[in-house]
Amino acid sequence: MSDGARRLLPRFLPLTPALALLLLFLAGPIAYCVLIAFTDLQLTGQAEESFVGLENFRRAFGDEDFLNAVWLTVVFTVLSSLVGQNTLGLALASLMRRASKPVRTLTGGIVVTAWVLPEVVAGFLLYAFFRREGTLNAVLDLLHLPSQNWLYTLPILAVSFANVWRGTAFSMLVYSAALDEIPKEITEAAEVDGAGGWRRMWHITLPMIRRSIGTNLMLNTLQTLSVFGLIWVMTRGGPGGKSQTLPLFMYEQAFQNSLIGYGTAVALLLLLVGSLFSLVYLRLLRTEV
Amino acid sequence: MALSSRRTARRLAADAGLLAVAAAFVLPLAWVVLSALDPRAGLRVKAPDGLTLDHFDAILTDEITFTPLLNSLVLCGGATALTVVCAALAAYPLSRFHSRLNRPFLLTILFATSLPITAIMVPVYALFVRVDLIDTMQGTVFFFAASQLPFAIWLMKNFMDGVPKELEEAAWTDGASSLQSLARIVLPLMGPGVAVVTVFSFVMMWGNFFVPFMLLLTPDQMPASVSINDFFGNRGMVAYGQLAAFSIVYSTPVILLYVLIARRLGGGFALGGAVKG
User: What SUPFAM superfamilies does UniProt report for this protein, alphabetically (chain A) (predicted)?
Assistant: First the structure.
């Protein structure tokens, strides 16, 4: 052992408990995931699984239900994360800069409470909101607008709104912090030069916070990719798979159809997409680690 | 004059916009509060037909509330303790000593903070069946801790970087080991930082549904995040008033804890170093 190593080893000894946990319970399952995605492991009635190569993946891309889940995951992510949480979060953050203090505190408090609630509780609250006899239809009736059974007719829209309700606070906090960092002189100078609100937003604010926008989009997307409880509580992925995103599809294949191997192959694909977003996020961050 | 009246008009417009969003956001929250107190609670937000605490009375039993909450406390408390201890130990060398491996390690950690943990729950289940950890509290605690660790280490390291190294150097010359200086000097100085990591880990696990839903099978071991499902199905007709009352009891601790650390997480809230961009 070299002198350097002898000196360094005890210093880095405190890392071992964390390292052991991470390797055994996080890296381990990920490696196991890669392994069994290529087998036909089943939940019951099978003595030994065997290696099936790319069969699970071939099966997935020929499976209409899988393609449906991919499409719904894209819709769910675009609607709730890219459009909903991101835009609404930015709008709230910029409105808050002009609003009076009590209104700012009240709105911030309500939006953040929705974010802090446990996932399943949020699911129940929005289940009640969107049910046929629920609050949304009561409001629509009041306004003489047509009501409908949202969880049945447009379940993916309902769960997307639920995710916006639950997740917007994060974007709001990110953008509030980012907007605080823009020097006042710049916006004031533009105002004196006669640039209106929209032009200031488009030509000054957005370019100046573009890195926050990038990191926020990545994190929102990663968050949204892993939503399970919210959709599970509201619709169980139904009716007829109309709100079945990839995590719910994975669960159904593994446990309702007992196909652990196939379910894990789907999990691996989800993990790969997540890793890709995570890498882009690291690139955007370019921290001075 | 013209400028200030334009300012006022703009403030009123902003207030109106925010209040509209707040009204839309508050409806589901209003439902849970009103239904918990309404003797004839349904699925719709309405003024209660009188006020009652019957729903709370009905749910405050061992089976419905206390056992699941105690399970949540054991699970999340155990996992949080494990997370915080391991994260503090791991963050110390990363913050204090330089090595060529620090940067790649920290980048890996940061990468892991944003991986979708949901995706690996099926293989984790299969693995836990194989190594006989399925349906055990300790297995679930270990997995919870591991899944929270990357972010906890990252956060802890950033807080630790804020404690000047000079303070320890005196202790080192007096012959204190690094563990001693971590325990006696660094951690006490970053008390609020440790509190943030602790509370944040706890809150994340308290609300987590999928992990215990997959890894625990015995009803007596279920934490509140999973047992809340029993209000549907198992008990026949859904008692919405009781469901609402239970939701409030189950959510209150995390809301209080969040309020406690909100100021420190505040605007510059750095989830996964997120806002540093």
Answer: MalF N-terminal region-like, MetI-like
Q: How far is CA A9 from CA A4, A15, A16, A91, B272, in A?
A: 8, 10, 11, 51, 28
How far apart are alpha carbons B83 and B74 in whole angstroms? 14
DSSP lists the bridge partners of residue A260 as none
Domain chopping of chain A, boundaries: 53-283
Quote the minimal CA–CA distance from B128 to chain A in Å. 9
Which helix (H) or strand (E) covers residue B140, if one does? helix B137-161
Q: Please state, in angstroms and rounded to a whole number, the distance separating the CA atoms of residues A261 and A267.
A: 10
The residue to which tokens 């929250």 are assigned = B29
Report the alpha-carbon angle B148-B221-B152, nearest 5.
10
The number of beta carbons lying within 10 Å of the beta carbon of residue B51 is: 10
User: Which SS3 state, helix, strand or coil, does residue B193 take?
Assistant: helix
Cβ distance of A15 and B93 shorter than 8 Å: yes
Rounded Cα distance between A60 and A53, Å, is 13
pLDDT tens column, B5-60: 878 888 899 999 999 999 999 999 999 999 899 888 788 888 888 888 988 988 88
- Interface check A225 vs B, CB under 8 A: yes
| Closest CA of chain B from A112, distance in Å | 10
SS3 state at B36: helix
Residue among A187, A201, A198, A163 nearest A76 (CA): A163
Q: ipTM score of the complex? A: 0.89
The listed CATH number (1.10.10.10, 3.90.1300.10, 1.10.3720.10, 2.40.30.160) that belongs to domain A53-283: 1.10.3720.10
Cβ-nearest to A177 among B25, B42, B268: B268
The whole model's pTM is what? 0.90
